[in-house]
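FIELD: query
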Amino acid sequence: MNTDITASTKPEYPVVDRNPAFTKVVGNFSALDYMRLSTISAISVTVGYLSGIKPGIRGPSMVTGGLIGVMGGFMYAYQNSAGRLMGFFPNEAEVARYKYKL
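FIELD: result
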Protein backbone atom coordinates (compact mmCIF):
# COMPACT_ATOMS: atom_id res chain seq x y z
CA MET A 1 0.00 0.00 0.00
CA ASN A 2 1.43 3.34 -1.07
CA THR A 3 0.87 6.04 1.56
CA ASP A 4 2.84 8.77 -0.21
CA ILE A 5 0.43 11.65 -0.84
CA THR A 6 2.59 12.98 -3.65
CA ALA A 7 1.90 9.80 -5.61
CA SER A 8 -1.79 10.68 -6.00
CA THR A 9 -1.75 14.50 -5.82
CA LYS A 10 0.74 16.93 -7.28
CA PRO A 11 1.43 20.23 -5.46
CA GLU A 12 -0.27 23.28 -6.92
CA TYR A 13 2.20 25.76 -5.40
CA PRO A 14 6.02 25.95 -5.29
CA VAL A 15 7.55 23.22 -3.15
CA VAL A 16 9.77 24.56 -0.37
CA ASP A 17 10.55 21.17 1.21
CA ARG A 18 9.10 17.91 -0.07
CA ASN A 19 9.72 16.06 3.20
CA PRO A 20 10.05 18.61 6.04
CA ALA A 21 11.33 17.59 9.45
CA PHE A 22 9.17 17.99 12.58
CA THR A 23 11.22 20.92 13.86
CA LYS A 24 11.01 22.73 10.52
CA VAL A 25 7.22 22.32 10.36
CA VAL A 26 6.73 23.56 13.94
CA GLY A 27 9.16 26.43 13.32
CA ASN A 28 7.08 27.39 10.29
CA PHE A 29 3.86 27.93 12.29
CA SER A 30 2.31 31.27 11.38
CA ALA A 31 0.33 33.60 13.62
CA LEU A 32 -2.84 32.18 12.09
CA ASP A 33 -1.74 28.65 13.04
CA TYR A 34 -1.20 29.73 16.65
CA MET A 35 -4.55 31.50 16.66
CA ARG A 36 -6.30 28.37 15.40
CA LEU A 37 -4.55 26.24 18.01
CA SER A 38 -5.58 28.65 20.78
CA THR A 39 -9.16 28.91 19.55
CA ILE A 40 -9.66 25.16 19.29
CA SER A 41 -8.14 24.70 22.75
CA ALA A 42 -10.32 27.39 24.32
CA ILE A 43 -13.49 25.99 22.77
CA SER A 44 -12.60 22.49 23.95
CA VAL A 45 -11.96 23.66 27.53
CA THR A 46 -15.32 25.43 27.54
CA VAL A 47 -17.17 22.41 26.13
CA GLY A 48 -15.42 20.17 28.66
CA TYR A 49 -16.45 22.44 31.53
CA LEU A 50 -20.05 22.66 30.38
CA SER A 51 -20.22 18.90 29.82
CA GLY A 52 -19.18 18.22 33.40
CA ILE A 53 -21.70 20.48 35.15
CA LYS A 54 -24.55 18.00 35.49
CA PRO A 55 -22.58 14.98 36.74
CA GLY A 56 -20.49 17.25 39.00
CA ILE A 57 -17.09 16.58 37.42
CA ARG A 58 -16.35 20.01 35.96
CA GLY A 59 -12.62 19.98 36.74
CA PRO A 60 -11.64 16.62 35.25
CA SER A 61 -13.98 17.13 32.32
CA MET A 62 -12.47 20.56 31.61
CA VAL A 63 -8.90 19.21 31.75
CA THR A 64 -9.77 16.33 29.44
CA GLY A 65 -11.47 18.67 26.98
CA GLY A 66 -8.47 20.98 27.11
CA LEU A 67 -6.01 18.18 26.39
CA ILE A 68 -8.10 17.00 23.46
CA GLY A 69 -8.32 20.58 22.17
CA VAL A 70 -4.58 21.21 22.46
CA MET A 71 -3.77 17.98 20.63
CA GLY A 72 -6.37 18.62 17.93
CA GLY A 73 -5.34 22.25 17.49
CA PHE A 74 -1.67 21.29 17.25
CA MET A 75 -2.40 18.63 14.64
CA TYR A 76 -4.47 21.10 12.61
CA ALA A 77 -1.73 23.75 12.75
CA TYR A 78 0.90 21.13 11.89
CA GLN A 79 -1.12 19.96 8.88
CA ASN A 80 -1.44 23.53 7.57
CA SER A 81 2.23 24.33 8.12
CA ALA A 82 3.45 21.12 6.48
CA GLY A 83 1.02 21.61 3.60
CA ARG A 84 2.45 25.05 2.92
CA LEU A 85 6.03 23.74 2.96
CA MET A 86 5.14 20.87 0.63
CA GLY A 87 3.28 23.13 -1.79
CA PHE A 88 -0.27 21.89 -1.20
CA PHE A 89 -1.52 25.19 0.31
CA PRO A 90 -0.79 28.81 -0.70
CA ASN A 91 2.74 29.56 0.47
CA GLU A 92 3.95 32.96 -0.73
CA ALA A 93 5.50 33.79 2.66
CA GLU A 94 7.39 30.49 2.86
CA VAL A 95 8.73 30.82 -0.68
CA ALA A 96 10.00 34.32 0.12
CA ARG A 97 11.51 33.21 3.46
CA TYR A 98 13.28 30.11 2.11
CA LYS A 99 14.13 31.64 -1.26
CA TYR A 100 17.89 31.33 -0.84
CA LYS A 101 17.79 28.04 1.03
CA LEU A 102 16.16 26.08 -1.80
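FIELD: remark
The CA atoms of residues 31 and 37 lie 10 Å apart.
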